[in-house]
Amino acid sequence: MDLINIQAAASGRDETVSRQMEVLRDRLGSALRIADELSISPSASTPKQPVNDRYIRQVLQWRRRRDQFFGDHLFADPAWDILLELYAASLAQYRVSVSNLCVGAAVPATTALRWIKQLEDDGLIARTPDPMDGRRHFLMLSNKGLGAMNSYFSNLPGAPLI
């Protein structure tokens, strides 16, 4: 075999290996997406939810609206906003990254991070790493946090039951 034939054979093997790697990468991506969907807390899909995510989003909107009339310095409550954001996400069955939750809390990131740590320490929220990006983490209500939010909203007078 001469050098040209050897290079052609190696090139053909390289293309085959590249195609196989692309197929494996696609399959791994699909498997990770399925695992991601299955990692949603099973308690989030139980029918015992007292409200739905649209109602919680409405509560958050009402909280933001009062800033128009009173200013945002009077009613800062980042822990509650974090819990509401995570409750809405749990009800809608999607995950929230730490950075998105900081934005959703409508406070400086340092304040949001401090409250996230406190809520984690209290066992109300849990942090899980992103399997696709080791730099990112997702937050969700723990079973304790979800139970507390369900209890709170099921005991509110006039809360729409679903």
Characterization of this structure:
- This protein has 162 residues and is mainly alpha-helical.
- It is built from six helices and three strands, in the order H-H-H-E-H-H-E-E-H.
- It has a three-stranded antiparallel β-sheet.
- The protein is elongated and about 85 Å long.
Shape: elongated
Helix content: 55-70%
Q: Largest sheet, order of strands side by side?
A: 1-3-2
Number of strands: 3
By helix and strand content, what is the structural category? Answer: mainly alpha
Order of secondary-structure elements = HHHEHHEEH
Q: What's the end-to-end separation, in Å?
A: 75 Å
Mean pLDDT: 79
Number of helices: 6
Q: What kind of sheet is the major sheet?
A: 3 strands, antiparallel
Strand content: 5-15%
Task: Calculate Rg over CA atoms.
Answer: 23 Å
Task: Indicate the low-confidence ranges by residue numbers.
Answer: 40-47
Tags for this entry?
162 residues; mainly alpha; three-stranded antiparallel β-sheet; 6 helices; elongated
Describe, in short, the structure shown.
With 162 residues, the protein is mainly α.
Topology:
Blueprint: H1 3-38, H2 53-70, H3 78-92, E1 96-97, H4 98-104, H5 109-121, E2 125-129, E3 137-141, H6 143-154
Antiparallel strand pairs: 1-3, 2-3
Helix pairs in contact: 2-3, 4-5
